[in-house]
Amino acid sequence: MAFVKNSQQLLIARFLLGMIQSGFFTGTIIYFSLWYCKKEQIMRFAILFGAVFAAGVLDDILAYGISHMEDIGGLKNWRWLFLFEGLPIIPLGVMTYLFLGSIPDTVQWLNNCEKLLLTNLLREDAGGKLQ
Question: Which residues cross the membrane (predicted)?
Fold first, then answer.
């Protein structure tokens, strides 16, 4: 969005970003259910929402500082804001994709005993039979 030239391009970029982000909350709920028992999920959601709140506070502080960067490097301050907020997300997203496993059975950073223990705990919590 830092490289758009007019308001029409900005609206299109924001719309596409909104479409991409729309599944984040639902996906987070599903992801937590694959890793945590029901009573543990509540605390994880609280941590997530606390982190969202803290990120909003830090974002506001960053935006205030960036608002004083008018025409530095030939970019308007709103473009700098999109750059500073967006650039760290790219490597973080790649690292998350590479290292964050989808289910306990497929991750490599748990040994077989830990995978079995976690899988059995989640099955028991869901009311399923143990292996």
Answer: 12-34, 46-66, 78-100
| 24-35 vs 38-66: helix crossing angle, rounded to 10 | 140
Calpha distance 66→62 (Å, rounded): 6
Burial class (CB in 10 A: 0-12, 13-18, 19+), 81: buried
Per residue in 36-50, pLDDT (tens digit) is: 998 899 999 999 999
Contact 17, 86 (CB under 8 A): no
Q: How many helices (H) and strands (E) does the chain have?
A: 6, 0
Torsions phi, psi for 122 (to 5 deg): -70, -40
Please report the pLDDT score of residue 110 as a whole number.
85
